[in-house]
Amino acid sequence: MFLIAGICETQTYSVLTGLMGIGFILYGVGAGNLASAAVGATMMSAVTAQYGRDVEAKVDEEKLRSSPANVLVTARDLLHQRQH
User: Do residues 27 and 33 make contact, with C-beta atoms less than 8 angstroms apart?
Assistant: First the structure.
């Protein structure tokens, strides 16, 4: 997968899948082809599910970073690096 201006691969995948989904929906509705519109709707639901997982992962990561135990470990590591 390629990178666009520092966007990670997951975001690139989501953007491309979303654009393709919108394209299928527009084509399906415009041409009267409901199968294409259904494929586009399915692709859009996949993007929505991926976005939900990404948000949950970021929330979990922030919870871990803000816990008091992690602050103490990070402070100890910084002090250890400063001594060397």
Answer: yes
